[in-house]
Amino acid sequence: MHCDLLITNIGQLLTCASGGKPKRGADMLDLGIIADGAVAINGGKFVAVGPRTDGESQFEPTETIDADGKVVCPGFVDPHTHIVYAGDRLNEFELKIKGADYLDILAAGGGIVSTVSKTREATFEELVEQSRKRLDKMLACGTTTAEVKTGYGLNTESELKMLRVIEELDKTHAVDLVPTFLAAHAAPPEFKGNTEGYVDLICNEMLPAAWAWYQDSHFFSESVPFFADVFCERNAFDREQSGRVLETAASLGFKLKAHVDQFTNLGGSAFAIAAKAASIDHLDAISDEEISLLAGSNTAGVVIPTENFSAGKTQFADVRRMIDAGCAISISTDFNPGSAPCPSVPMAMAIATRYQKLLPSEAMNAATINAAFAIGLGETRGSIEVGKNADMLIVNSHDYRQISYEFGGNLVSKVVKAGAVLLEARN
Ligand code: NIG
Ligand code: FE
Hints:
Helix content: 25-40%
CATH class of the largest domain: Alpha Beta
Bound molecules: N-(iminomethyl)-L-glutamic acid, fe (iii) ion
CATH superfamily of the largest domain: Metal-dependent hydrolases
Number of domains: 2
Largest sheet: 8 strands, mixed
Number of helices: 16
């Protein structure tokens, strides 16, 4: 039988196979490892996955890669990023080192709002070029699919510009993207002291305009979901304002996400779970009761260890407790200029294993199959299973635990995306 690509002599083939649902509880420990495995790819999809001795010889591949006994895993799925922006926040980095607080910087017109003025000024082309470089870095670290949010435009015109940038990047860059509309990231300067007025604008004008854009976009024609998100936090949007945004978005057809409990518990988690959000993200200040609600729901929990690390915090979201309670947990980088300037999912795994006490196997499932479910792509991404998109990594190690163990370098040796070898490192 013909196939485009055969990858053989795989020491540990991490399938992360999940039977069509996200992993919970003790299942997070199971990576579905096949020792001495092989994978056949045809037409951009996996057509055979199994031990090398099981029928590898039936294939006549166009190309064969000998993995030399190394680890092969699914391409990473990053379920929460803000990579479309202009400018940088290097001054703020120094202010924070000297003791300034993230929410105080935001209240003083810095933080997210300072990135907004740069992003409004930037042309479509400038934003595409700057953001493309960030996607290149993510791909080099093994990310093959990512969610990307707007949220640095904060008016109709600039938020739509960001959506068009995300669409252009999806069409022209190998990493597959899922768009999220985050007009409710912060109130822009022209609405300072009038957050209610900005929420009216979001509900009456921006969300409908974004939904109309989506219906004409290639995301819609390719059945990629479109999410609406809100930053439910002190100095951003309170519970009622967040609720109005999410309810309006749901009535238009958006799927929902929410930034909740990053610093302060405003009740956003319970609300978003009841609103059947696809995911709730951050979760540092989530209550025990909300953890139980999350565990009993179809909402995914996305945790962001890079944010705590970047802020120099010693407290992290209690992911151990969430996994043990049965929540479907995934990990993201949150790649953004303010709170987490990190393109690397393995770095997020390195932090989560140390500070949140995930085992390397749990971190791997959280960064692949569970992350795919958190962005509505669990049917096609996140695991090495027959019929799924052939997105996978060859890792320069014989033991998958090294992916979480080592940090500061890059163990990704080859990235295969939809069956094509995109990147070959010299490691
Ligand atoms: O997820 N929490 C709000 N949004 C981002 C930070 C964005 C920024 O600071 O520019 C986050 O941490
Ligand atoms: Fe975020």
